[in-house]
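Good morning,

Attaching, inline, the backbone tokens for the sequence recovery test we're adding to the shared suite. The designed sequence is right after.
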């Protein structure tokens, strides 16, 4: 099985910088024997990565969809609650269905479009007040407000100002994507450069570690929303890595691919907060990226070629139906994921 050796061509720098973490990791290890077993099981499974759910996400086939997706991923973080009872979490009702987590965010933003809010408009975002965002993300009666509302509001204002003042023109998001010239890597780099809230990095042993979770998932969501055409056509999607979040490492741990030492397992299982940027949190995220990369390499050898982000989607989807007896995901309060 491959060692944690990043490819020579790693333009995002995510694999290279996280490899250094995995090699030094004290609390998280990747069980390579389980990588081999899980890869065999995945190779036999005919399931395809999930497609873009048009019943949940806004899509009109124009630049407005691209703007809506950028807003979606500017807000795509930290939906978890300290409450174990789903009834006490932030939840949204849309078209008669009550949803929580990421699905609630997508539903709320789709509902906002129906209610006449131009979420793709840079000037609208730049001038948005927090009361308007609170209304957009309003929960069902009796449910709590979405976590980190003020941080989400700041992200949208940053997005609007960056598009309106930094790029300009009537359709700045269209210009942003066009300037990338069909390169996922260039678009990710530009999003990270223009919008600091997307600059998802940490420090470990004094070195900068890149994750770029929301910037990467923005590109993947564009590809999904446009079915790989137009603004969603990228020639270099293979450079994307896993999107290091809460759910995917939880699934990898349940599969036995990620193994936590007793110290970290005790913290995670007791739902103790891990500070953002702590060694434990960085090791979980780096281990997630490399566990998926090892699965990708093993699947390629098994003649089931899947890209890292596609494996991520399969794992994330599996995580939506985990048993109630599954061990919990780690708790970190952060705007990165």
């Amino acid at each position: 099985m491959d060692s944690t050796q990043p490819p020579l061509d790693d333009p995002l720098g995510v694999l290279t910088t996280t490899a250094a973490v995995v090699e030094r990791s004290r609390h998280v290890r990747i069980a390579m024997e389980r990588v081999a077993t899980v890869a065999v099981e995945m190779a036999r499974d005919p399931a395809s990565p999930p497609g873009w759910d048009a019943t949940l996400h806004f899509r009109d086939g124009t630049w407005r969809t691209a703007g809506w997706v950028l807003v979606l991923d500017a807000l795509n973080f930290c939906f978890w609650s300290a409450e174990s009872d789903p009834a006490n979490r932030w939840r949204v009702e849309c078209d008669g269905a009550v949803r929580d987590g990421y699905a609630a965010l997508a539903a709320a933003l789709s509902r906002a479009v129906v209610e006449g809010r131009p979420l793709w408009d840079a000037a609208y975002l730049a001038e948005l007040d927090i009361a308007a965002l609170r209304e957009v993300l309003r929960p069902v009666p009796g449910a709590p407000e979405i976590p980190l509302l003020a941080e989400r509001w700041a992200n949208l204002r940053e997005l609007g100002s960056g598009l309106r003042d930094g790029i300009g023109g009537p359709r700045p998001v269209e210009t942003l994507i066009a300037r990338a010239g069909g390169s996922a890597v260039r678009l990710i780099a530009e999003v990270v450069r223009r919008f600091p809230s997307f600059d998802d990095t940490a420090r470990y042993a004094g070195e900068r570690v890149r994750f770029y979770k929301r910037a990467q998932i923005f590109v993947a969501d564009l590809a999904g929303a446009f079915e790989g055409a137009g603004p969603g056509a990228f020639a270099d999607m293979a450079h994307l890595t896993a999107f290091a979040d809460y759910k995917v490492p939880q699934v990898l741990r349940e599969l036995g691919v990620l193994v936590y030492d007793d110290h970290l397992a005790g913290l995670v299982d007791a739902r103790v907060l891990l500070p953002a940027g702590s060694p434990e949190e960085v090791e979980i995220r780096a281990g997630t990226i490399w566990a998926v990369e090892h699965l990708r390499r093993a699947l390629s050898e098994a003649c089931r070629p899947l890209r890292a982000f596609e494996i991520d989607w399969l794992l994330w989807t599996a995580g939506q139906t985990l048993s109630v007896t599954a061990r919990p995901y780690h708790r970190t309060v952060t705007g990165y994921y």
